[in-house]
Amino acid sequence: MNRYTKRTFALEVVMIAVAIAFAFPVYVLVNLALRSPSDTSSPISPTVAPTLGNFTQAWQEAGLGGALINSILVTAVSVLIVLAVSSLAAYPLARSTARWSRGTFLLIMLGLVLPFQLASLPLYQTVRDLGLLGSVWSLVLFYAGLQVPFTTFLYVGFLRALPRDFEDAAAIDGCTPLATFRYVVLPMLKPITVTALVLNAVSVWNDFFTPLLYLSGSDQQTMPVAVAGFVGQFVSDWNLIFAALLISIVPVLAVYLALQRSIINGFAGGLKG
Amino acid sequence: MIPALLLFAFVVLVPSARGVFYAFTDWDGLDPNFAVIGLRNFIDMIDDADALSAVWHTLLIAVAVTVIQNGVGLLLALGVNSMIKSRNFLRVLLFAPAVVTPIVTAYLWRNLLGPDGAVNSLLGAVGLGSWRQDWLGDPGLALWMIVLVVVWQFAGYSMVIFLAGLQSVPKEIYEAAAIDGSGPVRRFWSIIRPLLAPAITINLMLSIIGGIKLFDQVYALTGGGPGHATDTISTLIYKDAFTLGEFGYSIALAVVLTVIVAVASAGQYAVLSRNERAAS
Question: pTM of the full predicted structure?
Answer without folding.
Answer: 0.91
